[in-house]
Amino acid sequence: MIIRGVSAKSILDSRKEKTILVSIKTEKGVFSASAPDGKSKGKYEARPYKKSLEGDILALKKFNDYFNKEIIEGFEDLRRIEDIVEGHVGANTLFALESAALKALAKEKNKEVWQIINPDARKFPRLVGNCIGGGKHSQTKEKKPDFQEFLLIPFTKKIKDSLEVEKKIKTTVEQDLKEKDSNFKSKKNDEKGWMTSLNEKEILEILKKYKVRIGVDVASSGFYKRKKYHYENPMLKRDEEEQIGYLSNLIKNFDIFYVEDPFNEEDFDSFAKLLKKFPESLIVGDDLTVTNSKRLRKAIDNKSINALIVKPNQCGSLLEIKRVCEMAVKNGIKIVFSHRSGETQEDILADLAFGFQADFFKIGIDGKERVSKINRLIEIQKSLKPSH
Ligand code: 2PG
Ligand code: MG
Predict the structure, then answer these.
(1) Residue 388 — pLDDT band, cuts 50, 70, 90?
(2) Residue whose CA lies nearest to ligand 1 atom number 2
(3) Which residue's C-alpha comes closest to atom 4 of ligand 1?
(4) Which end of the chain has fewer CB atoms < 10 Å from its terminal CB, N or C?
(5) Residue range 324-372, pLDDT digits in tens
């Protein structure tokens, strides 16, 4: 496949903030892909743009003539694209560019995007759905939970059925919140999780009655300052030991299956202590590992996690994502492909999650930007039906 031209422009994401859309022209047509954007970003994530979105658009324009000298025949040839733009664009731009290239390549080869990554992929990830939110994703002056996300993790064979389970529970949870939270206004946050003034214990008390596994994204780097976790609901500070104690009680009392970023992004040791106590739960790195193979290596050496978040635009390079996924599989670490809080209707995340054989797919339960990706996963599952 020969790339005849590359162009980019800015579009608006689900938060009405600017993000990049990249288009690639080949003999077969024009193929576009856009990048999401986060709000509770890890300190070690790659920058979304080198200097600015506009600067990256100009950089791609400048390199336009270099692309048509390269022949792209398979996934590994993304290296040729990376060699051209490396150091000149940020992770959002690189991810959108490589995604558009994969779409073009899939068309060229008359295949699906996931088949370009791994034609033998068969296992489907379990959905991890955001039901109630707080932290940085709920912009409000009123009280809110300090934890960023309360997640539902159903287990059904069909993705379609898991989505139904999530939707049903989320609707009933609205009634629970109406009863228990006098400030509740049926409002949703950035990821379409319910906004509530309840705190994490009160929320978990509601969720524990449902027949589904429960997860939380503590996103604790967001409220860690001067060696303490600064809780606001209720107002109190916890040091490392107290944070371990508090989380251990929650995991025990509410049978929590999935715990993301329980500690600050530098604290590999506390992650390891929690994992040692709860090897049956998933202790998940997000800001800790930022889809970066060096950070993952450190987490593995320290025995800090048994699951990790993969967010393509944390690093931008699909080749690095492949390295991260291979390292995870080799070391028995579960892979969770994840959306960002600012999303577009781009659905390639589903192909990537399936192609890289993710164990979990973390995504909102409603909103067109989230549902487009679940629908794509359902479509892939339907297309493979005879063998299932
Ligand atoms: C997270 C993500 C997605 P953001 O912390 O896991 O839920 O949030 O995209 O804001 O980094
Ligand atoms: Mg997270």
Answers:
(1) very low
(2) 340
(3) 38
(4) C
(5) 999 999 999 999 999 999 999 999 999 999 999 999 999 999 999 999 9
- Judged by DSSP in three states, 225 sits in strand
Catalytic positions: 191, 311
Cα 60 to its chain centre, rounded Å, is 26
Partners of residue 230 on adjacent β-strands:
237
Domains annotated on the chain, with CATH: 5-111 (3.30.390.10), 126-387 (3.20.20.120)
Contacts (Cβ under 8 Å, ≥6 apart) of 251 = 259, 278, 281
Q: Which atom of ligand 1 is nearest to the CA of 36?
A: 9
> Which pLDDT band holds residue 386 (cuts at 50, 70, 90)?
low
The closest alpha carbon to 297, from 262, 317, 268, belongs to 268
Instruction: Tell me which DSSP letter residue 71 carries.
Output: B
Question: Which residues have C-beta within 8 Å of that of residue 386, sequence separation ≥ 6?
Answer: none
Atom of ligand 1 nearest to the CA of 342: 9
Kindly give the distance from the C-alpha atom of residue 69 to the centroid of ligand 2, in angstroms, as a whole number.
39
List CB-based neighbours of ion ligand 2 within 5 Å.
217, 260, 286
Q: What is the pLDDT of residue 374?
A: 98
pTM attached to this predicted model: 0.97
Distance 276 CA to ligand 1 centre (A): 25
Q: How far is the CA of 286 from the centre of ligand 2 (A)?
A: 5
CA of 289 to the centre of ligand 1 (A): 13
Residue-wise pLDDT for 67-112, tens only, equals: 998 899 999 999 999 999 999 999 999 999 999 999 999 999 999 9
**What is the spatial distance between Cα 346 and Cα 343, in angstroms, rounded to a whole number?**
8
With a Cβ cut-off of 6 Å, ligand 1 is lined by: 38-41, 148-149, 191, 217, 219, 286, 338, 340-341
Q: Which ligand is nearest to the CA of 191?
A: 1
> Which helix (H) or strand (E) element contains residue 9?
strand 5-12
Which residue of 136, 150, 286 sits with most ligand 1 atoms within 8 Å of its CB, as the best mutation to test the pocket? 286
Which of the 8 DSSP states describes residue 46?
P
Arithmetic mean of pLDDT over the chain = 97
Pick the residue with more confidence: 113 or 69?
A: 113
